[in-house]
Specification:
2 copies of one chain form a homodimer.
Chain A lengths: L1 H9 L6 H9 L7 E2 H11 L5 H13 L4 E3 L7 E3 L7 E5 L5 E4 L18 E12 L1 H8 L1
The complex binds manganese (II) ion (2 copies) and zinc ion (2 copies).
Chain A binds a DNA duplex (30 and 30 nucleotides) through helix 4.
DNA sequence: ATCCTACGATGGACTCAGTCCAAGTCAAGA
DNA sequence: TCTTGACTTGGACTGAGTCCATCGTAGGAT
């Protein structure tokens, strides 16, 4: 994720320790943390980082397109650093676990012009819901 | 929507004036109201109905499958009485307006077994995002 | 028609996620 | 090293939704 820090510097960002730590926490695959989880992990590395700063930084990363905001039903939004490889999500309706998935077909073209009602359609979001292996077992035993 | 009231009676529900009024407010096509909007409209017909009752009734209707809960990003959930005709949603990212749409293709089968990671996948939700005709014009002028 | 009571309604307190703001701090250019 | 505006901080605040003790009433029983 150090290339992310490079890109941010290129955009005129001040490289504060807080921003470095948030970027570090978001590094990896299949990462879908809530803001509070990001805050908790960041605080292990930089104890006095504030919740407000985590929210600010995540918001900035989202509007730069470096992180995707995933809103799952009623719970807290999740933040996904895997923004440069388009993908969809498979969510466990019991425990909330999320996996990245890559469906075949292109959902955007599945919406015929007659069904667009004059909208300028730009993105599509597909969420598969079901039970993860662990929860399937728990509920059937 | 009187058939809805019939079905509810069949399930042992007490037909209170509050439940009747909520059912009445939810009648119609392309209805996607927030809980507070349902409350406001219900209160025109039955002034002292409480927010808690609206939430309770909506929750019950959802778990009976009579109403669908649509969670749009960070805002309040919307409640959709069009539960017996499967459909997806087209949402204006600026003003929040929602239209029902019927994409071709079946998104559920677009997820190959290899991409299911042992999940028992039961539903799929597709949200198309873009600008409605009004907002497209506003932003381009 | 009246009574009974379990189911439902009420409103106010509470939680949780997220935003806002005034004051203090510090990264980085001069 | 100095300066300054961008950034951070913690606490107050908001909005959506839940919880709960208490009260009311739908509808079956008599
Ligand atoms: Mn993802
Ligand atoms: Mn709908
Ligand atoms: Zn699970
Ligand atoms: Zn619009």
């Amino acid at each position: 994720m150090s290339d992310l820090l490079e890109r941010l510097r290129g955009r005129g960002w001040r490289l504060t320790s807080q921003r470095r730590v948030v970027a570090q926490v978001l590094d990896g695959d299949h990462v879908h943390l809530t803001a509070d989880e990001v805050h908790a992990r960041a605080a292990l590395l930089l104890p006095e980082i504030s919740r407000a700063t985590v929210y600010n930084t995540l918001g900035e990363l989202v509007s730069l397109g470096e992180v995707i905001e995933v809103s799952t039903d009623g719970r807290a939004k999740r933040y996904d650093p895997n923004a440069h490889h388009p993908h969809q999500h498979l969510v466990c309706s019991r425990c909330g676990m999320i996996r990245d998935v890559h469906p075949s077909g292109s959902p955007l073209t599945d919406l015929p012009p007659a069904e667009r009602f004059g909208f300028t359609v730009s993105t599509v979001e597909v969420t598969y819901r079901g039970l993860c292996p662990g929860c399937t077992q728990t509920l059937s035993s």
